[in-house]
Write a structure and sequence with these properties.
With 56 residues, the chain is mainly α. It is 73% helix and 0% strand. The protein has 3 helices and no strands. The chain is elongated and about 45 Å long.
């Protein structure tokens, strides 16, 4: 399996957000990485919904 075709800056940011070592991220299967990115995308939306519900 070849390493992911992403820029070094993107790899570092994803590594920090996912809490995964950079070496693991670069050799992670693409479908798993896409699933984790989708989960990251859902988190802020859930937090925004919670804020809207808390405000009167």
């Amino acid at each position: 399996m070849k390493p992911l075709q992403i820029s070094p800056e993107t790899a570092v940011k994803l590594s920090e957000k996912l809490g995964v070592p950079l070496e693991h991220l670069m050799h992670m299967p693409q479908h798993i990485l896409l699933q984790k990115i989708a989960e990251l995308g859902k988190e802020p939306a859930d937090a925004k919904e919670a804020e809207k519900k808390d405000k009167p």
